[in-house]
């Protein structure tokens, strides 16, 4: 699996893709594969404040419950409502299934995140354990 | 420096290498390295595996289950003494669901008792309780003229489950499986092996068989692969412990450490119909009589979520006012029923079908209702 270079990644397996003043956030292919069949995605409402590194939502598979960690601080501007009724889309296309869009409070925070190449290395090591 | 205890090695079944080669996702379960699900490329994934068993056929490696053999002139008396169901009702070749109880009337384990011959019984026990069960059975049967043997490492056990399971297995054996009723066993030639035990039993709330073959890796792998090949025409899917858990939950089949344990008694667990108080003395009987007279205070209720959210093992159950009344023993999405379901111990007055309760999910009470159980019952054969 190759990870798109147009975005940044967290060690908790989220991705964030910046587009002007807004950024889309989702979980990675590796995350969806580890979770298995995803049946539930819960994210905060529009207007909610996210803090980098803090949990902001939950994704659940048949077997497991997993927290979502905010890759950056900011305000939720849009929620992908489709995932409330069709959460399996995350399994089919994790990098195309954004969960929330947000404004960035401190765009500099993204410098601390992983590039696609670094993330690929990181998951290769995790999978090796 | 604190002393470090040696971690016991994780145990592997004879099919471990096969599972890994197939790309199964492996997890540790009760000290065993077991497949939780197979890749989508093989028709796997918990939901797909679950649906395959409900509508077609799936196969499971359940070699982690343990086996205890009791044989001798007083084998029946020994089995009667240590188990709650009435083994005297078993014909040769018949099996029954039962349980081993502590003197307190709580569970050592639940078991399937098979009567293999006039004076020979096989108890199939849970993986996590193998050693405990064996010592318990041995210690509680010394007074009987009966040999107790731990055969847990002597079988590779494969479960072939689903409405098409009988058709699949029939392709591989000369034994006539159509005459084997649910909870009966037969022996016959299977995949070139003689005298193989095949029981029409399982843990999926579906029709199916469990077979007991020699435990060497080559034979185990060969039989596993022959079953998969023979099952192609029925759409057979290899299944892991993930689907095994959701299947048994839909059928309200108890899991040791969850619905049954050493702190839960037979009445609370609702397993009355497998407990034969009218038979002679058995371990736990006196305590159960007292418990019944004192009145049963809690019950295992089936819950269905009425609001968004998935109840999970250990979550609190609240009354309408938000007061804690119990906890979830097993909770999960139910792939076939397409609902979020759970089992929970609640006070008797909350166990009535239709009672509205809440399940605390991440600090919030989400609505649920008590529903009839089992959640899923397999359709009666019309043929």
Which features would summarize this protein structure in a list?
A: 129 residues, alpha+beta, OB fold (Dihydrolipoamide Acetyltransferase, E2P), six-stranded antiparallel beta sheet, three-stranded antiparallel beta sheet, 9 strands, globular, B: 383 residues, Gyrase A, domain 2, Alpha-Beta Plaits, six-stranded mixed beta sheet, six-stranded antiparallel beta barrel, 9 helices
TL;DR of this structure?
The complex is a heterodimer of chains A (129) and B (383). Chain A has helices at residues 29-35, 82-85, 89-92, 116-128; strands at 8-9, 14-19, 22-27, 38-42, 49-50, 55-61, 65-69, 74-79, 100-104.
Describe this structure in words.
The complex is a heterodimer of chains A (129) and B (383). By secondary structure, chain A is of the alpha+beta class. Chain A has a single domain, classed as RNA polymerase II/Efflux pump adaptor protein, barrel-sandwich hybrid domain (OB fold (Dihydrolipoamide Acetyltransferase, E2P), Beta Barrel), CATH 2.40.50.100. Helices cover 22% and strands 34% of the residues of chain A. Chain A has helices spanning 29-35, 82-85, 89-92, 116-128, and strands spanning 8-9, 14-19, 22-27, 38-42, 49-50, 55-61, 65-69, 74-79, 100-104. Chain A has a six-stranded antiparallel β-sheet. In chain A, strands 4-6-7 form a three-stranded antiparallel β-sheet. In chain A, a hairpin with a 3-residue loop joins strand 6 and strand 7. Chain A starts with 7 loop residues before the first strand and ends with a helix. In chain A, 40% of the residues are buried. Chain B has nine helices and 19 strands. Chain B has three domains: 16-62 and 155-250, Gyrase A, domain 2, CATH 3.30.1360; 64-150 and 265-294, Aminomethyltransferase beta-barrel domains (Alpha-Beta Plaits), CATH 3.30.70.1400; 297-371, Aminomethyltransferase beta-barrel domains (Elongation Factor Tu (Ef-tu), domain 3). The N and C termini of chain B lie far apart (68 Å). In chain B, a hairpin with a 2-residue loop joins strand 6 and strand 7. Chain B is of the alpha+beta class and 383 residues long. Helix content of chain B is 20%, strand content 32%.
